[in-house]
Structure formats: C-alpha cells, structure tokens
Amino acid sequence: MLACSRTLIHKRNVTPNSNPNHLFSRLRIWLLKTLAAPFITSSLPVFLPWFSSFSDTPSREDAQICPSLRPLHIEASVATPNFQYSLDSEGDMGERREVFVTVGTTCFDKLVAAVDSEPVKAALFCRGFSHLKIQIGRGNYFPSKVSRQPGALEVDYFTFSPTIADHLKSASLVISHAGSESIFETLRLGKPLVVVLNEDLMDNHQAELAKELASKKHLFFARGPHLLAQTIESMDLELLVPYKPGEGDQINTSLKLTSPGEGSANKQGEGEEDPISKNKAKKGTKKAAQRHQDRAAISLAGGSEYDENDPLSSRYGDIPLEDIQSKSITGRTWTDVGELCAEMKGETVLIRGAAQAIRSTSKKIVFLVVRQGMSTVQCVLVVTKDIISPQMVCFASSLTKESIVDVEGVISVPGMLITGATQQVEIQVRKLYCINRAVPNLPFNIEDASRSETEFKEAEESGEQLVRVGQDTRLNNRGIDLRTPTNQAIFRVKSEGVNELRRVLLLKKFVEIFTPKVIAGSSEGGAEVFKLEYKGKPACLAQSPQLHKQMAICGGFGRVFEVGPVFRAENSYTHRHLCEFVGLDVEMEIKEHYDEVCDIVEELFMAIFDHLNNNCSKELEVIKRQYPFQPIKYLPKRLTYDEGVQMLKEAGVEIEPMGDLNTEAEKKLGKLVSDKYNTDFFILTKFPLRIRPFYTMPCYDNSEYSNSFDVFLRGEEIISGAQRIHDPEMLTKRAEQCGIDVKTISTYIDSFRYGAPPHGGFGAGLERVVMLFCGLNNIRKCSLFPRDPQRLTP
Fold first, then answer.
1. Which sign, positive or negative, has the C-alpha torsion 723, 729, 731, 737?
2. What distance in Å separates the CA atoms of residue 547 and residue 725, rounded to the nearest whole number?
3. pLDDT digits over 280-307, tens only?
4. Could you confirm whether 577 is annotated as catalytic?
5. 706, 768, 780, 783: which one is catalytic?
6. Which residue of the set 117, 720, 751, 783 is catalytic?
7. Per-residue pLDDT tens for 722-764?
8. Where in the cell is it found (predicted)?
9. How far apart are the first and last CA of the chain?
10. Distance between CA atoms of 459 and 721, rounded to whole angstroms?
11. Is 568 among the catalytic positions?
C-alpha cells in the first residue's frame, strides 16, 4: 500500500495514518494501482479515438485526495521574464524530488491547467514529490491566474529555455504533452514519463507515438486532471529514481526503448530482453559500455545505427562532429534552395538548410521542409526497397525543428501548387544527414513569428487563438527571429541599399573613408554623448564622423563618404531612435552654393529607391505580406523652412517661432506635401541657426538662419545636412557659443588654418531610411541587434 511520505508542520499537526479519510485515500490508490492502471495501459490503443477532451473541472473524488494535508501558502515574487514561486513552510521537506512539466505547441494552456489543478498537485505531494516545475510563456496561462491558489508543492514557473535538458535531467518524473519533442530526450535519459493525450488536437504522428509507447512499463498515459491524478496515484514508485549529479546522461539499459514507427521495423518481440542488458554492460569493459550507450542514444534519435543490419544505414544519420571540423574536402557541390526550379527535373541535387517543418503522415512517408535564407523546398521520404528504409523515415521523423540538415535527392515536379514552400518542386530524398540538432523546445516557432496582423484578425473573428510573439521576445532571441522570411527580406533590402549608395557615390568620384569612433570631445555638441576613459584620459564615442570627414576634405580628397556606426546617448524611447545606428555620411567641396549638396542627395536617393524597387521586388513582397505598406512616391521637391511652417500654420498647426519641428509637425507636413506635390520625399532648407550644430554656416543675408537642410520621407526626417564653417575664427566662436570646450577639438579647428575649401555634406541613418521605405512601424525591426536606452544585449 502507498501512503503520503511526509507530515507537514502546521498550526494543526495531523498524522496521515490517523485520519480515516486518508486511509480511504490509501485504499483507493492501492485499488487504482492493482486494477485500473493495467486496464488503462493495455486498452489505450483501442479506446484512444473515443477519449474526450480535457476536463477543466476536477471531479468530486479528486477533490478529496489527501484531505488531511493543509495546503501551504505560496508567495509570488515576479522577476521578469521568469515568474518565481517559493514555498513558505516550517516543515522539513526532506529529499528534493522534482516533477517537470514539458509541453508541445498545442494545447498548452490545458495541460498546464491540468497539472496545476489541486487534485494533481495533492497527488504528487502524496507520492513524495517536493518540487513542481511548469513551463509558461506560450499561450494564455499566466501565473496571475494561480498566484492566489494554495498548493502543497514548491512550484516554479518559467519560460521556454534552451537549457530545458537540464530540467529533464534533474527531474524524478516528467509529465509531457503528446506533441512535445522532449519525449524522446526524456526516454533517452531513462526518466519515468506521464504522457497526457488530447485526441482532438492529435495528428497521426502523435497517435502512432502513443500506440508505439503504450507497452513500455515506465510510461503512463492520462487525460485531463481527473485521470492525471489517478495515474500519478497508481504509478510504480520503484521506477522513480532521484537524479544524482553526473548520471544525467546515462542510458537506462534495462529499459528497451524505441522511437515512433520503430515497432514495425524491429522484429523482436515485446517481451524480449535488450541484447545488451544492464548487468552485461557493467561486466563489460568501459569501451563496450560506452559503445552500447552511444548506440542506444542514436537509436532513440532515429539514427543510422539504430539497426546495424539495415543495408541502407549509410544513407542517413547524425554526422559526427569530427567529420565537420574541416576534416577533408570531398569536392561535392551544394545547390542553393532558391535556385531549384522545374527545369531541373530529374537532376540529383545536394542542399543544406534548416528543418523548418517535419510532417509524418504514416510510418512510411515523411515530408520535410528545408529552409535556406528566404527559400524553402519540400523534401519527401517514402519507404522504397533499396532506396529508403523504414529506419530512415523514422530518423527523419525524429529531427527537431531548425536542425541543420544535408539532403540529397532527385528533383521532381508535382502536378499541383505547393503552398508550404517557395520552390514549386520537390526533392525525392535519397540521402539525409543531420549536421547539427536544435534543442527540442525553441523559444518560439518561426511560423508564429511570421504571421501578419491580417492573420491575427481573421483568427480572432473565427474564434481561433494564435500565438503572438512580442518584440522583446524576438529581440531577446534574435538569432532565431532573424530566420523569419520577413527579417531575411528586411536585411537584404538594407544591404542592397548600402551597395547602391556605394555604387552611385563611387561613380561620382567620392572616396570611401573610415574614421575613428573613440574621440577626445563631442563631435556634435550637447549632452547626448557616451563618455568613457581612454588610458586615464576622458574620451567619448563619436556622435558622427563629422569632424574627421571635414578634415579629410581639408586633406585634399575633394569628395568622401563613410558607412559606419554612430553613437547617440539620447534617452529617446520612440519608434525611430536608437543609441547606435549605421550612419551614411557624405562630405564634398562646394564650388558656389550648398544646393550642390542637395543635388547629390536627390540624385543619390532617387537612384537607391529605383534600385530597391527594381531589384528587391521579391523581398519587398515578403515584407508586405507580414507588414502591409504602400510604396513611396518620390519626386524631387524643395521647400524652405519658412514655407513649410506656413503650410503648417494654414493647416492649423502652431509652431514655436524659430523652433525645430516636432514629430507631429513633421508627420503633418509630410502629409501636406504628399497631398499637394504627390511626393513622400522632399527637402526643407534654411533652418534657424540656433537649432543647428556649431559647425553650420550661417546665411549670408540673415545670420539667424543657416545654410542647412533636412530631408523627409513619409513625414519623418531621414537626413540632416549643411554647408560647413571653414573659417577657423568663426568656427572657434560658434563652438564657444554652443558650450563646447575648444581644447577638445583644437586639432579639428587647426586643420582649417592651413587652407580649407568651402564644403558641405550630410548624414543619414540607414535603419530609419529602410524603416520608412518599407513602411515599418519600428526602427528596431531594421537593426540587426538594436541598441536603445534599455537594450544592450544580445
């Protein structure tokens, strides 16, 4: 008979054995263990189709489990992004035994609610468990729903993590949804496992998984809080071995483990002992034991060594790390997925990419979608004599999403449209090798991160709930987020824009330069500067290459440009500001008028916009599918500052006299110009001198204005430029007026004492240009690893 293994100290001490209700609970556990458990296990394959959905209401019987235990108070302390719940108790919890709950991508809320129900937690505590770990972060189940509920366990809630294997290792029992890819990792570790089924959301692969695993004595199946509690009560505790450090990776060789579909390929009977028993492994040499464990691990992953008698074992499997350490050159040729087309029908190709989706329709057929960059192709494995073995299909089914694979096969052209891949061909797989396996549980799915607002709206109208991946989650896991088609497209557009900028400027005889980013003083003036110590001296990060590109003009280069990082220590928590961005800086000699610089701006950006529209149509369509936008209208148009202010006043917008335009005024002016002149791109000239940098040349006829300009796109500033002061005395006076210590820029000023031509230039932020060109709502989408006032990682 089984009983609660400990007594808790409360205001009212209760001995479990002295309570008649508890004696009834012990009798109920014994009956379930003796009678119900064998029936549930043996009848699973027969009654699986008739199982009902999860029950959210615990039964009356479940509510009576261990009534003698007074629940402990759970205190919640929130620590973003994880939610920690700690146990407040005076009792001795004894040996720490953990229960770990892992889920798949379906039915997340229901499984967590099932495990978090009072009957299940009470049953776990009665069986001697002290610690319950539950995943949260995908779905709508949040700790706030349970923070006031009492419980008898120490409970931790945490978000998805790449270190999930560590949780599996330390657990004495694992509870998993049938769709979780952690099932086979659990089996590999030899951990007892309770699989919670949900037939209404179960695909063929999960159903076959349940049937294949039904005969394993260390596996248990349950459905809903009621059956889950009963299953926990009736489990054989002899199988629950507490984790000891250093043993987490050992294979339990006394258990005969197989992966889904393996039963059809393995001809051994269910009752046969494993060919290499645990006792034999102990008696054998260390090398033999290690070889057996490696073979068992590979078989659980569906690897090529699962069946040494498989004549096709060389066609699939996990590639050893040593073979990828630049061991040899084979001369093989890989084909880009984006190049696969119908004209290649019948050709044998070799591709490498990420396993975006794995779909098993039966034990003999698996569909594998491989992604490389923005392109995807569907690969098909069908059991075929002398070509594809059942073990190879099993191996393909065992791959985790985002694992890197090599696929070799023959191109075929199906007779219908392929909706799940970009390439309208299929690869009939002949060889399949895993180069690097991804962890079973990713922080989020690529599919979830690729959905558009339209999809969310349609799902909401139909009552369907989709997973929305937030911006912080994306940026915290940027390495995965960048794999989405939209992000791939955004940064390809960004790259093409820079390439076209270089092409145009080089044709116009500009020289690309590279200036220092650690300087002695502020390059723009003001307090928006990152200060640091440089070998015992004060220094700062360059706010722009302004000073050095002007010195390059004085050095006789005539026309220069730079593409490089710019640092601004501004506390701007907006959609368009970053603390570090890519600056596009241009400087050139002026012969007569600073309009010459404006001419370069118009020619340059007209060329960039034309290039992107003509050469990035595919990428722009991909972006538009997730973030719909209207293409920009761009025609050359120039207005003076006063003309722009007058348009705003006529529209009822008040502007501070001789003040800068705020965000709302910029957007309004952009709308007015677009409506009146049919362009989203225009230049505003002659800004007031007091709102411009110290090195800006004043107007000859009115010193309150300057020879400066800003460029706007979709109502937001993207460029700031001007004619520069090249006279050292005027430059010194302006620097002092702006509060700049002249000593820190003395070398800059001195460079104009040796003869300096009139010159001007401009600077643009690459991320902001891309954001506005693509109609995106946040500049962080256009920064590979954005840095803002709150983000310094990854």
1. negative
2. 11
3. 444 444 444 444 344 444 434 434 444 5
4. yes
5. 768
6. 720
7. 999 999 999 999 999 888 889 888 988 998 999 999 999 999 9
8. Cytoplasm
9. 54
10. 47
11. yes
Query: Would you call 226 a catalytic residue per the annotation?
Result: no
717 is catalytic: yes
576 is annotated as an active-site residue: yes
From 219, 241, 230, select the one nearest 33 (Cα to Cα): 230
For the chain, which ranges sit under pLDDT 50? 1-22, 25, 29, 32-33, 36-94, 104-107, 137-152, 199-205, 217, 239-306
CA-CA-CA-CA torsion sign (518, 521, 524, 528): positive
Dihedral angle computed from the Cα positions of residues 436, 439, 441 and 444, in that order, rounded to the nearest 10 degrees: -50
Give the Cα separation of 135 and 161 in Å (integer): 9
User: Within its chain, how far is the Cα of 286 from the centroid?
Assistant: 41
Whether the model clears a pTM of 0.70, i.e. scores above it, the answer is no
Q: What are phi and psi of 512, to 5 degrees?
A: -80, 135
Amino acid at 307: D
Residue 218 annotated to the active site = no
Backbone angles phi, psi at 287, to 5 degrees: -65, -45
CB 275 within 8 A of CB 230: no
**φ, ψ for residue 310, nearest 5 deg:** -70, 115
For tokens 């003869």, what's the residue? 755
Quick: pLDDT tens for 205-224.
455 555 555 555 456 666 55
Q: Catalytic pick from 305, 402, 717, 767? A: 717
Q: Specify burial of residue 278 (Cβ count, 10 A radius: 0-12, 13-18, 19+).
A: middle
Identify whether the C-beta of residue 407 lies closer than 8 Å to the C-beta of residue 429: yes
How high is the pLDDT of residue 273? Answer: 38
Helices (H) then strands (E): counts for the chain? 25, 25
Two structure tokens written together for 536? 């015992």
- Does the annotation count 408 as an active-site position? no
Query: What values do phi and psi take at 520, rounded to 5?
Result: -80, -30
Catalytic residue among 177, 218, 568, 724: 568
* Residue 363 burial (10 A CB sphere; 0-12, 13-18, 19+): buried
Which residue among 295, 502, 577, 625 is the active-site one?
Answer: 577
Instruction: Give 518's strand partners.
Output: 541
The pLDDT value given to residue 521: 75
Task: Out of 199, 455, 496, 570, pick the active-site residue.
Answer: 570
From the candidates 167, 483, 492, 576, which is the catalytic residue? Answer: 576
